[in-house]
């Protein structure tokens, strides 16, 4: 009913709008006043966490994209090798697991059969399983050794939005917590990132306030066949998520690529007026990445692409090559997915509407897939 949708036309719009609160709720009570993390609910002891020599993330769909981003954070802040695997592939390849492997199962619903089977397999091999989940008391957390709930509130729209952002926050918390417990050389950076995380809800709010041009742009693309997405580093999984949203909602051919791979194939797809969304890393920090992507934008534009550039406020280098420029607040590189994904959600939702699709219930999809 309209009341359930809180005045929005679709649950998806409501859930997109709820993201600042959802993100704040994921953090609530988990950062203590001294600025360190308290994840007592992770009932895997600090000494056990210090023994871990490998992290394996298993998930499906949008949750898998959260896992891909988590890998960058976990490896950077903890120096523990981290693999990310589609849950449906995981147990069939005889993965190498033992008591020192930490398996993280990410699932909004907690009922996805592929993810459940993957975690059962991991536990049979003696690994500890930590669930990152949004649904209290669901099967995946019940069968895991520990759970970190995302507290995003119920997500009704089939296409995941607020659950994704909160999965990211939960993954960052786990990465930072592992770093904290294991005392890596990134101590100061970890402190700084915890501060940045505690402000991120306001940044997401600011992004939401500037989405009208993104909607207008989406409407002009309603009769396109293909939209491509490019990113580097954590922007690459963001590109994959942007493409997935467009497939799910707009039923358009959409693909995400690592920008560095362009020259190895995807650049052949670039032709006159094909829309390409590019997620640009911050020019501060890892500036090599930024400069490389600016040349990628130049390359595709020279071949006729219509460039839709998502870049940090104050990044002037991209301006000459952006047919459309979407600004996001400056954040540390690793946290950028929390702000960069939001315009992509809005973009896909508006395109679905413009194409007359059912936003909350896309054809052929289910909110939770409880069969293998
Ligand atoms: C389904 C949904 C996706 C979701 C995926 C994983 O395919 O349509 O939106 O990302 O399942 O769901 P989970 O509940 O495990 O996060």
Whole-number average pLDDT? 95
Fraction in beta strands: 15-25%
Instruction: Please bin the fraction of helical residues.
Output: 40-55%
Count of alpha/pi helices: 13
Enzyme class: transferase
Domain SIS: 45-184, 217-362
Subunit structure: Homodimer.
EC number: 2.6.1.16
Which SSEs are present, and which pair or pack?
Blueprint: H1 11-17, H2 19-27, H3 46-51, E1 54-59, H4 61-78, E2 82-86, H5 87-90, E3 101-107, H6 113-124, E4 128-133, H7 139-142, E5 146-149, H8 162-182, H9 187-209, H10 212-220, E6 226-231, H11 235-250, E7 253-258, E8 275-279, H12 287-302, E9 306-312, E10 324-328, H13 337-354
Parallel strand pairs: 1-2, 1-3, 3-4, 4-5, 6-7, 6-8, 8-9, 9-10
Helix pairs in contact: 2-8, 2-9, 4-8, 4-11, 8-9, 9-13, 10-13, 11-13
This protein binds 6-O-phosphono-alpha-D-glucopyranose.
Describe this structure in a few short sentences.
With 372 residues, the protein is of the alpha/beta class. It is 44% helix and 15% strand.
């Amino acid at each position: 009913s309209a009341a359930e949708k809180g005045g929005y036309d679709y649950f998806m719009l409501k859930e997109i709008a709820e993201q600042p609160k959802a993100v704040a709720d994921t953090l609530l009570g988990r950062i203590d006043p001294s600025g360190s993390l308290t994840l007592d609910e992770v009932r895997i002891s600090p000494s056990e966490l210090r023994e871990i020599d490998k992290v394996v993330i298993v998930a499906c769909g949008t949750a898998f994209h959260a896992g891909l981003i988590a890998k960058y954070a976990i490896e950077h802040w903890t120096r523990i090798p981290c693999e990310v695997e589609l849950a449906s592939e995981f147990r069939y390849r005889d993965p190498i697991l033992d008591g020192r492997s930490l398996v993280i199962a990410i699932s909004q619903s907690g009922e996805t059969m592929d993810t459940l089977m993957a975690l059962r397999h991991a536990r049979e091999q003696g690994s500890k399983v930590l669930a990152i989940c949004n649904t209290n008391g669901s099967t995946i957390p019940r069968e895991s050794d520990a759970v970190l709930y995302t507290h995003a509130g119920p997500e009704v729209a089939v296409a995941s939005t607020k659950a994704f952002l909160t999965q990211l926050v939960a993954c960052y918390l786990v990465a930072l917590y592992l770093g904290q417990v294991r005392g890596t050389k990134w101590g100061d950076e970890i402190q700084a990132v915890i501060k940045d995380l505690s402000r991120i809800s306001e940044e997401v709010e600011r992004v939401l306030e500037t989405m009208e041009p993104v909607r207008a742009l989406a409407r002009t693309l309603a009769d396109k066949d293909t939209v491509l997405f490019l990113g580097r580093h954590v922007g690459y999984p963001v590109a994959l998520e942007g493409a997935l949203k467009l497939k799910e909602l707009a039923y358009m051919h959409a693909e995400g690529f690592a920008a560095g791979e362009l020259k190895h194939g995807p650049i052949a797809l670039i032709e006159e007026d094909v829309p390409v969304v590019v997620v640009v890393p911050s020019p501060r920090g890892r500036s090599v990445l930024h400069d490389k992507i600016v040349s990628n934008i130049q390359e595709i534009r020279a071949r006729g692409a219509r460039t839709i550039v998502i870049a940090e406020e104050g990044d002037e280098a991209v301006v000459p090559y952006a047919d459309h420029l979407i600004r996001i607040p400056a954040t540390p590189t690793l946290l950028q997915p929390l702000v960069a994904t939001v315009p992509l959600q809005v973009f896909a939702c508006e395109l679905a509407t413009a194409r007359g699709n059912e936003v909350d219930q896309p054809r052929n999809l289910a909110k939770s897939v409880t069969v293998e």
